[in-house]
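Think of the structure tokens as a kind of shorthand, similar to the way a musician reads notation: each symbol stands for something richer, in this case the local conformation of the backbone. In the example below we present two proteins back to back. Begin with the first one, reading the sequence and then the tokens, and try to describe in your own words what changes along the chain.
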Amino acid sequence: MSEDSAKTLLEHVTGWEVKNEGDILKLHMAWKVKNFVKGLEFFQLVAAVAEEEGHHPDLHLVGRNNVKIDVWTHSVLRCLMPV
């Protein structure tokens, strides 16, 4: 999928962006959480869903309250395609 096609599909979801890292398209989103512990709790929730779905995103807790997630597959935006 081209980056332009991915960005067109991205219009159907709120808050996510497409990043191109070394020709790999990734879905990226960042949040601010209340504190470090809340960030870890959020990661536990994400981990439970990721494990069920068989997709394992990169999770980043930067500083004490900045959470970032990157998700990608061979077809990173397949989940955004209209049915």
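Once you have a description of the first chain, move to the second and do the same.
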Amino acid sequence: MLLQTISVLSVTVVLFGSLEGKGVQMQRDVQCCMQYSQGKVRTKDVLKFEVQTEGPDCSIRAIILYTKKAVKCADPRDRKVKRLLRKLVQRQRAKAHRTMWLHPRGNLPVMSEIQ
């Protein structure tokens, strides 16, 4: 899992390195939002999101939205961003619930055990 995360981050750094100066900047191999992006983001365009906290590497709290075309930085206190996050979390839960049925648990009986 850690290796997958590292590889995704390195690909993200390469793909989105050109966005520097537009709100997303690289600092010591960490992708940070330095300011909030303008414009709307539709729920269906968001591939994934991350929560950025304030710290030594990143100066603001933000929600990093990875869309089909770009990386956007959103203010977590904004009402519309909160609504978008609720929809994204609902979508994640629905997807997890659908895929749960694709992988049977170990406690289900095998067909040969049923009489």
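Compare your description with these statements about the second chain. The chain is about 30% helix and 20% strand.
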